[in-house]
Design brief:
4 strands; alpha+beta; 145 residues; 4-stranded mixed sheet
């Protein structure tokens, strides 16, 4: 037995079509929200990776071309280093040690009975890295209080 379909009047048919359109619109908006969220996530991942690579690159450049010098003995503080406790200088070489503690050379100076001054002794101790004692370009300096 076959059921007969009753024809829908115009208002009922329009209501059914309106519900279908609303459902489709909600699905479309939800799909667009998911796509926007996915794009934002991809963008955040991209920018975080890019920022991390940039930070690593800056660290490598700093290590390659800049030296942080601290604990400067009073006998070496002359000229541009007067009243400076630490400084960052451009190195004349690439990829050497990035940090120098000049105070660690003082015990060797006090033990050595030399006729040279402290700056000359430090230059001898530093060897090929002696150019940080007379920096031509100081990027940053922390002054004594």
């Amino acid at each position: 037995m076959e059921q007969e379909r009753t024809p829908l009047d115009r208002h009922t048919y329009q209501r059914i079509l309106s519900r279908k359109r609303q459902r489709a619109r909600r699905r479309r908006r939800a799909r667009l929200r998911r796509l926007r969220m996915f794009r934002a996530l991809r963008s955040a991942r991209f920018w975080s990776r890019t920022g991390a690579y940039f930070l690593v690159g800056l660290c490598i450049v700093f290590w390659a071309k800049f030296a942080f010098v601290y604990n400067i003995p009073p006998g070496v503080r002359q000229g541009a280093l007067l009243n400076v406790s630490a400084y960052v200088a451009v190195k004349s070489w690439w990829f050497g040690p990035p940090v120098f503690d000049l105070g660690s050379f003082l015990p060797a100076f006090s033990e050595a009975r030399l006729t040279v001054g402290p700056s000359t002794f430090l230059a001898i101790q530093l060897g090929k890295y002696h150019s940080i004692l007379d920096p031509s370009v100081i990027v940053w300096a922390r002054h004594l209080q």
